[in-house]
Amino acid sequence: MKSNKNVFNIKEIIIIIIVTGVVCSLATGIILFSNYKYTGLKDDEYLNEFVDAYAKVIDQYYTEVDREGMIDSAISGMMNYLEDNYSIYMDQSEADNLTSQLSGEYKGIGIEILTNNVINSVFEDSPADEAGIKAGDIVVAVNGVKVANSSETISLMAESDENSLELTRNGESYTVKVKSEVIEKNIIVGELMEENNKKIGYINISSFTKNVDKQFEKVLNNLEEQGMESLIIDLRYNSGGYLDKTQNIASLFLEKNKLIYSLESKDGLEKVYDKTGEHRSYPIVVIINGASASASEVLAGALKDSYGAILVGQKSYGKGKVQQTMDLEDGGLIKYTTAKWLRPNGICIDEIGLEPDYEVILDGNPLEWESDTQLEKAVELLAK
Questions:
Q1: How many CB atoms lie within 10 A of CB 260?
Q2: Cα–chain center distance at 54
Q3: Residue 339: C-alpha distances to residues 248, 263, 320 (Å)
Q4: H helix or E strand, kind and range, residue 70
Q5: Rounded to 10 degrees, what is the CA torsion of 253, 258, 263, 266?
């Protein structure tokens, strides 16, 4: 009788050897990478001193120590030591809030609701839109619970992914069921106006979120299809956001190889140019104020220096530094400055700001066409 044995031929043996070699190489690479990541700190006497102090406190302090809390405090203290207002530690709640603001998305039904429960607007193609909810409707109850203000309404709706809403329209009551979905925030507001027989486009950018460039390009193309001859870009009260999104928007206007901005770090100077073939040539006015900061100033500076745009309003905030973030295992993060950024003309606006070509003090309310003196000046310049 022949015994059953596993026998490998030469070809199979060679394959096994190769596979084993690849696995071992990958494992070795991972180990080496992990060690290499902080090789420069391996023999750091200052870090060793910190570790020794941490270990001593954990081991000998007279009561139990919250290790996570102590490390968080240590990281916060390290960031405070830098004496840089933009280099900070954020706990999980603060980190989640920042991420939410910059994501350009939120979970909801797609409405903007005023304090008195009046629906100010309904986002196109949102669950609220599909349910037939209209601007001007008033929310009376959520899941049978009467609500007196928007805070109560939002709080109750957040408890479930599907809600029954009682609303009134022109004094008549109706009820709908609406599911909550991930909604893309409307960061861009666009409008076409006519003055002296000239078609002037207006685009307001409220923040540089992860989807702002796509929204901007969509609105811009729509205005151009309507025959727009010049453009106003409103960056007032825009505190910034993602730098690469600013670069994408600037690239819609600048000619290829035009300088957008430069980064100055301890590694030297890096210049960032427009790499696209797309560009525009019509007149542009950018409106800024003291709350226009960071990425807003980058875009305004690029359009001013490399396109010839006119700045109207008041001096901008003056944030000329760039930050990166690092997620921490406890859900928090650190945000730290990595470079200064320079306008195409070589000037860093940190703590200086952008000076408008036409300084106009706001008299009235922004976006109210009849009383917004800064917007009025922008229109005047383009309607000549």
A1: 27
A2: 36
A3: 20, 6, 9
A4: helix 67-81
A5: 170
Q: What is the total residue count of the chain?
A: 384
CB 94 within 8 A of CB 332: yes
Q: How many CB atoms lie within 10 A of CB 294?
A: 24
Nearest to 349 by CA among 314, 325, 323, 321: 321
- Its pTM surpasses 0.85: no
Please give the class, per CATH, of domain 106-184: mainly beta
**DSSP symbols for 196-215:** TTEEEEEEEE--B-TTHHHH
Which tokens belong to 229?
């001859």
Residue type at position 171: G
Write out pLDDT tens, residues 239-284. Answer: 999 999 999 999 999 999 999 999 999 999 999 999 999 999 999 9
Placement of tokens 């840089």 in the chain: 84
Domain 188-325+336-382 belongs in CATH node 3.40.1010.20: no
Alpha-helix runs per DSSP H in the chain: 10-37, 45-60, 67-81, 92-103, 127-130, 150-157, 212-225, 243-250, 295-306, 373-382
DSSP 241: B
95-96-97-102 Cα dihedral, nearest 10 degrees? 90
Tell me the two tokens of residue 181.
């979905």
Per-domain residue ranges for the chain? 45-103, 106-184, 188-325+336-382
